[in-house]
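debug: dumping io for the single-chain case to check the tokenizer round-trip. Nothing else runs in this session.
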Amino acid sequence: MSRLIDDNISIYEALQNIKEGKYVMPAFQRQFVWGMEQIEKLWDSILLDYPIATFLFWHVDDSNASWDTYFCNFLSEVTFNSKKQADSVNYELTSINVKNTNTAVLDGQQRLTSLFLSLLGEAYIRPNYARKKTGNRILTKLLIELNKNKISVDEEEYNSKKFDIKFSEKVGRLSPTQFEIKNIIDERFQDETTREKAIEEAIINVPADSKDYARNILLKLYNKIFVEKLVRYTEIIDMKQDDALEMFVRFNSGGKALRKSEITMSILEAYWPSAKTEFGKILVESYERFGTEFIIRTALMMYGDVVKSNINKKIAEDLKNDWSGFKKALTNMEGLLEELKIDVSRFSNSWNVLLPIIYYVYYNPDYNKNIKGVRAYLIRAIFFTYFQSGTTSKLQQMKSNINSFDYEITIEMLDQMNDLRVTDGKIEDVLNSEKGSRVAGEVLYYLNLEWTNKNFKYEQDHLHPENRFNESKPISVSVEDWKRWRGMRNRLPNLHLLEGRSNGSKNDMRLVDYYNDMNDEQKTDFCKQAMIPRDVSLEIDDFEKFYEERKKMLTKRLRELLE
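debug: decoded output
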């Protein structure tokens, strides 16, 4: 069982521990993201005697860290972009020797990194015109103004700095009254016998009316770094890495948004440093908008437990060692969808539905002999909103069922699953889907795959125009029927798919007028594509008969797709 130890040390002691390699960070730590202003305000808070919050440390030893458990070293330099934000900098991965390294920082890495860079590291700024990888960088220094008459801070502004602390790239022409904060660690300031002289030399150019102010700032800066025990921490003893990850997620749930997928990616990179680069090679063209989470969850589906959603060393290594097979599965799945005339990019925001197909394609070399089963699964899952809730448990259910059916996706298998079994009630729910809903859009898309062109944009459109139902009722229609028809107008039997330009020209035309404006060939194509029943009246007076006849036709087409 884990034990907690509370203690405190000085800033300088903490930074020396970092320098000597005693302190590291777990591999799942995220990038350094603080900007210049946040570092400036951290030092301002220190000089204002504000607490800098508690740190959370994890004691590492032979029981929870082995030779292949990766950690991260702290940054010794950082480059800020022209907006004064840290460029996305990954920490350097390393294995550790627990005889020397015994502490991993779970919470407080941004603060400790900022302090370390300020006093023992280097900071650069990249001008707006410079390239990220090859452009010039300009050294910048963290300075504090010692002349109180030159302080340019707004003391009335809420949350503003009270000391004039700022980064400056004008390192060759500093003001004689500015002091570089890292100079306070010079031995002359640390040595009690030379400290007073060092301070007097540092303030020699400060006007007489500001010397006491300047002297007090430097003495206070010394005390804050070397004397006061400002780094208050809780260290957790006897904790495993999985528990450390869980605690890290909880402690980082506030502040800058931190998604679990980002943490998972960091863990994956600990075992496979080039993972993000390799992912980037996949996430182009058809998969451009899928994101790394798609690849991670697919890997969990193929090699691990998709419900627990935890990347461990085995899954990471399986993915790394089988990367060619993984990519081939994605390629084969995309080809399978192309045979069904479905573009994989359509699933960029709903890719969970593809994972069982990828799993099936990966484990079954004869996957292309069962296209009908794949199509039935895909369309049922979409039309019946299978993944609307309980996503990971349903993925695990599909995985188990595919395994049970000798790595096949069959109609028999689908019919044994309550959520994917075709019933009259489910078809009725699909037919009652309304204009603008995801289900209505998907149904119209799949019903019209045979004639639509992927280069055109199509829209859901009313056959009998919606506005007609806002006008006075036809004389032959009762008030009760008219009211009921108005409730039916937005449902699937009165909807069709229309190319955007055609939709603009149709607009609010009566259906019968729109039809009569066509030539014979156009009428034939329209009835076929819009699935208009033969010999049914297109007059608004006969809306209910039109609705019911088209509903029968759609029901038949839906069953063909689903079964």
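debug: round-trip ok. The two ends are 54 Å apart (CA to CA).
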